[in-house]
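From the shared-data thread, chain only:
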Amino acid sequence: MTIFQDYKPTKDNYWRSIILFGRNVASYKFALGHALLKMATNGNEIVTLEELAVPFSQHICRHLRLADKQGTSKSSTFLKTCRKFNSGTTRKDELIDATKKLGFVNVIDAFHIVQGNETSVRFFTDERRGQENGIRLTQDLFSLAQQSQMQNLNAEVEARWRLVETAWEMKLPKHVLTVKYQRDEQVLIANSRAFDRKVITGCRGALNGYQKGKCFYCNRDISVVAHSNNLADVDHFIPHLLEKYQPLGNLDGVWNLVLACRPCNRAGGKFDKLPVIAYLEQLAKRNNFLINSHHPLRETLISQTGNSEQERNQFLQGMYHWAKAKLPHSWQPSDRDEEAF
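Structure, as tokens:
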């Protein structure tokens, strides 16, 4: 009898694969993601391009105010129209018309493509050639809207968007751009030779998707939405208590940050203890998820832990042994839900 069991991805797993691992040549995928999540709560199956253009263009215009670079191409007629709207030289109806004609040219076709293949779960179908001239939302999207993870998905889209556009905006070689954690503000910042400090996004939203919305330790649902009852803590896998001993690797590095539920991280939980060795393998897997999502977290993790998977495993093992010599007591949660990643 085999000891291995197949895993059937959930709807939010498919959604996260699109947002986190889909190709990024422009930010339109993120704007469409935000718009779809909004439309899913309205309950209408058919969404015309005119209806879709409103939230889609709003998100593009909003992000252009944060970072003018919203793609890898040198010019875009659609983005020029959005910039004119932001400057007050284009009316809203003109913006919507331009969005209908130019904003959806590629993104509707490409949205479900991950690593060169279309996902088996679709959140909409293309109805632009039909009478509706729009898209048809699927039951998979409506089902996604009913899941407990729904509250986190907008935050994850936003965080991923901010990471990608920051990398484009800074126009820097990958090896000089690193993402760091600012502990007091619990945000990720970009540091480079050209920028002293640039706040990118909240740490929770940036990490949550790679843990599939689950506590790193017990696998129970967590939230990244402020003031939620199950708001996640940003935890240092190797406790930051040890930073005074000048470790080999920066303990505030993204490689060492995980999201944990408060019961695990606080009362009766981990505190300043080292997780049992089994969680080190899980940390390596999570870090590889981050690396596979590409620039800029990819470059940050590689610079912090090593170029190859073997080097990264050796780094984690060395850090774990170093920490274990100072914190001999190990910890694990008293019970866990089914593994999610």
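The chain has a mean pLDDT of 88.
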